[in-house]
Structure prediction request, 236 residues.
Amino acid sequence: MSGACRIVAEILEGLKSHVADGITTADIEAFVDEGLRKRGAVAAFRGYRGFPSSVCVSVNEQVIHGIPSGSARIKNGDIVSIDLGAVFEGFFGDAAITVPVGNISQQARRLMEVTEQSLQYGIEMVVEGNRIGDISSAIQKHVEANGYSVVRAFVGHGIGRSLHEDPAVPNFGKPGQGPRLKEGMTLAIEPMVNAGGCDVRILADDWTAVTTDGSLSAHFEHTVAVTKKGPKILTK
Ligand code: MG
Prediction:
């Protein structure tokens, strides 16, 4: 899993400087495909329940599962959420970042910061003996204290020899509830945070989730292992 997760992290890191005004979301897919090929890894998402690409690229009010397209051009002021899963030697890694393009609004920057912070607060709860609800509640509290909302329709997940394993890791919930964390468990924690309401709808492509009210959305994700020494972020 370390290998798969390192590959995901390296490609996402490369994308931070590659994503720029004027490129298309298909250019991001090409960058990802080349990065996976060079490292001997395979895209986890391509073909997953029929998903047609190796990476999800979701711009502005798109929450997750955006399909790269040669006609979707990225422009100054956009925020671009990129979710990438890789398979390497039989194991999966999964992570997501939201990248700013050029000069973004103060609100967009704050939304991104709060979302990434909420992921960190969630990760801090990845301690043996805690419960999934401790992660969920830490994320939700931080998001809502900042006036944003947590998407309910999609959640994080266990990950390992397959992309989506038990347990579900919601970004909302109560402390002390849900499955107990044990050493060796590996979780993909992935807050999706909307500037407006939490509701989402799916576009006619059957994949792209957008905010119902058209507000901006941000997404950050890490694959994290429960260890005796606390949380270990594998996709760092
Ligand atoms: Mg995931």
